[in-house]
Amino acid sequence: MTVSPSVPSERAAIVSAARRVGVFTEEEIRTVGELFDDYLRDAVGTGYNFLSYRVDNQVLGFACWGPTDLTRGAADLYWICAAPEAQGQGVGAALFHAVEEAVRSAGRWLIMIWTSGKPEYESARKLYERTGCELSARVADFFDHGDDLLLFTRRL
Amino acid sequence: MTVSPSVPSERAAIVSAARRVGVFTEEEIRTVGELFDDYLRDAVGTGYNFLSYRVDNQVLGFACWGPTDLTRGAADLYWICAAPEAQGQGVGAALFHAVEEAVRSAGRWLIMIWTSGKPEYESARKLYERTGCELSARVADFFDHGDDLLLFTRRL
Predict the structure, then answer these.
(1) Domains in chain B, ordered, with CATH?
(2) DSSP states of A18-32
(3) Across chain A, where does the E strand assignment appear?
(4) Residues A1-5: what's their mean pLDDT?
(5) Span B130-140, mean pLDDT?
(6) Mutate to test the interface with A, among B70, B114, B145 (most CBs of A within 10 A)
(7) Is the pLDDT reported for residue A44 higher than 70?
(8) How, if at all, do strands A74-82 and A110-116 pair?
């Protein structure tokens, strides 16, 4: 198993994992691909950064994070995703720890995690609780009517 | 007095107001100019949107807001700024109400306001409290060491 910065040839596997996990909208899945293209153009540590989780060179999950604009301390975790065939195998936790390391290496100390209160995001919420994140805010009807924002933070 | 969408010729007055108010960093002031250029390119209601507060065609303040990506309900208030010579005259409140109207017109119902806990932002915090905003989160050391995030929300 390896977790390290994604390479250009992994674009299709990453978008596919996002699609197959079944919780993201088409707009969100399209955004994953667009951010991946930005990542390939950006310098490391700026803009968007992708990490891949691989077993035998097969991508089983990915994470995307970036420094929060106009802050020195914060980074946003945009996506963390395990392919459906790899759920329950610690993919999320391994990716999360790799993001922590990357954020620390970038000289930042706070990870902001935007997630949904909907039932299908329960495993994500459990991951954030297990990895020492704090629930800093709950904002009702943020994503849509009946779809609340849960803002978790992880202090490094 | 008028408050309405900014016009291209107001760019210099807007950047100047941001500079003269004395609380923003050079990076933040440069960002105001860049977002204004994006605003001139974008369709109304998408991306970044600027509103100017004018007396006798003189720009005495501005606000910048935009729909929050990947949400149906939320909008971010990025900047609200009264020129130093116009402080205490209700410029901030007038701009804030114009943002509320614009967000409502865009079919959104929640304004997210990111501000700093530093003393020089006290008048901004007072404005948000007066206009019915709720303090949804306080995140220590977000902007920098000793510079906390105060996340206010306004539900329309």
Answers:
(1) 2-155 (3.40.630.30)
(2) HHHTS-S-HHHHHHH
(3) 2-5, 49-55, 58-67, 74-82, 110-116, 134-144, 147-155
(4) 96
(5) 96
(6) B70
(7) no
(8) parallel
Read off the tokens for A58: 């097969």
pTM for the predicted model, two decimal places: 0.90
Does residue B134 register a pLDDT over 80?
A: yes
- Are the CB atoms for A50 and A44 separated by under 8 Å? no
**Which structure tokens are listed for B126?**
């007072």
How close, in Å, is residue B70 to chain A by CA atoms?
7
Tell me, yes or no, if A145 comes closer than 8 A to chain B by beta carbon. yes
Cα separation of B74 and B70, whole Å? 9
Which pLDDT tens digit goes with each residue over A117-152? 999 899 899 999 999 999 999 999 999 999 999 999
Of B70, B109, B138, the CB nearest to A28: B70
Among candidates B27, B73, B144 on the partner chain, residue whose Cβ is nearest the Cβ of A142: B73
CB B48 within 8 A of CB B85: no
* Phi and psi angles of residue B29, each rounded to the nearest 5 degrees, phi first: -65, -40
Tell me whether residue B106 is exposed, middle or buried, using C-beta atoms within 10 angstroms of its C-beta: 0 to 12, 13 to 18, 19 or more: middle
Residue at token pair 């100390």: A109
Q: Does B110 touch chain A (CB under 8 A)?
A: yes
Query: What are the Cα distances from residue A102, in Å, to A73, A107, A118?
Result: 13, 9, 28
